[in-house]
Amino acid sequence: MKYMAPTVSIIVCSYTEQRWVQLQNCIESARNQTLPAHEIILVIDHNDALLARAQATFTDLLVIPNLNQQSLSGARNIGIANATGEIIAFVDDDGVIAPDWLERLCECLADPTALGAGGTIAPMWEGKQPRWFPPEFFWVFGCTYEGQPKKRQAVRNLWGSMCVRRAVFEAVGDFHISLGRIGTKPLGDEETELCIRASMHWPESRWVLEPSAVMRHSVPASRARWKYFCSRCYYEGISKSAISRLVGRNRGLAAERGYVLQVLPRAVVGGLLAPLRGDLSGLQRAGSVVIGLLLTTVGYGVGALTVGKRSGDWLSDNQGAGASFSGQPTQSDVFN
Predict the structure, then answer these.
(1) Spatial contact of 170 and 147, defined as CB atoms under 8 Å apart
(2) Beta carbons of 186 and 238 less than 8 angstroms apart
(3) Which of 37, 75, 185, 310 could be 10's S-S partner, Cβ–Cβ 3.0 to 4.6 Å?
(4) Residue 243: its pLDDT value, please?
(5) pTM as predicted
(6) Of 154, 290, 312, 143, whose CA–CA distance to 243 is shortest?
(7) CB atoms closer than 10 angstroms to residue 63
(8) What distance in Å separates the CA atoms of residue 67 and residue 45, rounded to the nearest whole number?
C-alpha cells in the first residue's frame, strides 16, 4: 500500500523585528516545499508592533499572539493549540529550510514507531566563522555539531527544527514552559525534555534523525563572539540541570556522557595537534572546548542548587495523560 503523506502544520515563532528579513526568508522557504504544508502558523511572542506588521504582510498565514508567558516554549504551545495537522513541524524564524525538508522528514514517519524526525541544521555565518570556534560546539547556535550521526538513525531526542506527531502532544502534554529560550536569554533543551518524556510513555518508539533534511540557520556576528559562547555554555548547564530534575539524571545526561567522554577529548587532541599541520588556531579551539565544558559544568551545578521542585511536580501531574499509551505504539495509536 502506498504511503499517504499526513497533513502537516508548520509553526514558526518570532519575537523581534530585528529578524524581519530572516523571518520573510523563513516563511518563503516554508511556502515552497515539495510536500506542501496543510497550513503555516506564525506565533508572535509578546511584540505588538511585530504582530501588526506580520498580520499585514503574511495574509495567507494564521498569525497569532503568544497568550502564554513569554518564551519560545509558550509560543510553540500556542501554535500547537491552533494547529489542525496530523504532524506538527517547527521551523526557527531565522532558518531557511530546503525545498525537500518536509518531504524527507515525513518519509521517516512512514514507520509507525517513529514519533518524530529532525534533520541537519547548518550554520549560515553572517561573517566569517571564528577560527577559535570548535565545530563540536555548534549546538551553541542551535546547529548540528561535530559528533552527531551522519546517516539516518534513531536518537534520544530531536532539537531545533523538527516534525512531531500530534499524538505525542495529546498524550504527554506540550513543551515545558520553564525550559526554552526567553527573549535573548539563551536557555534551551525543551525539545530534549519533550522527547524523553514521550519515550518514557512509548518505550519502544523512536525519534529519527534524517541528515539529508537540511535547514540553514542564521548565525549573526553577535553570536560568533566569545561572550555569547560563554553565556550559552553556562545556560546550557542550567538547562541540563532542569531536565535531569524532570526526567532523572540517567535519562537527562545519557547522550551527553558519550559527547563529554568521546567527542570532546578527540576535539582537544585534534586542536593540540593542529599546529603540526600549520593551523595555529587549533590551540584556541582546544582551549575553547575545555572552557566551554567547564562553564557548562558550572551552570549545571548552579542549576542543581537553584532549580525548585515546580518542574518535577509538573511532570508528575502530566504523566497520567499518556498512561494509556505505555508500551510500543501501534499504527492506530500514532496516527489517530
Answers:
(1) no
(2) no
(3) 37
(4) 77
(5) 0.84
(6) 312
(7) 22
(8) 8
Rounded to an integer, what distance in angstroms lies between the CA atom of residue 331 and that of residue 335? 6
Which among 218, 216, 210 has a CA at the least distance from the CA of 103? 210
Cell reading at 40: 503555516
Query: What is the Cα–Cα distance from 286 to 223, expressed in whole angstroms?
Result: 19
Separation CA 137–CA 123 (nearest Å): 12
DSSP conformation letters of 55-115? HHH-TTSEEEE--SSSSHHHHHHHHHHH--SSEEEEEETTEEE-TTHHHHHHHHTTSTTEE
Phi first, then psi, for residue 212 (nearest 5°) are: -75, -10
Q: What is the pLDDT of residue 244?
A: 79
| CA pair distance 69, 223, nearest whole angstrom | 25
- Angle at which helix 190-201 crosses helix 249-258, to 10 degrees, equals 120
3-state secondary structure of 89: strand
So what's the pLDDT on residue 226?
Answer: 94
Cα–Cα–Cα angle for 329, 334, 335, nearest 5°?
A: 150
Task: Indicate the helix (H) or strand (E) that contains 271.
Answer: helix 264-273
Domains of the chain: 9-323 (3.90.550.10)
Residue 180 confidence (pLDDT): 57
For residue 228, count other CB atoms closer than 10 A to its CB: 17
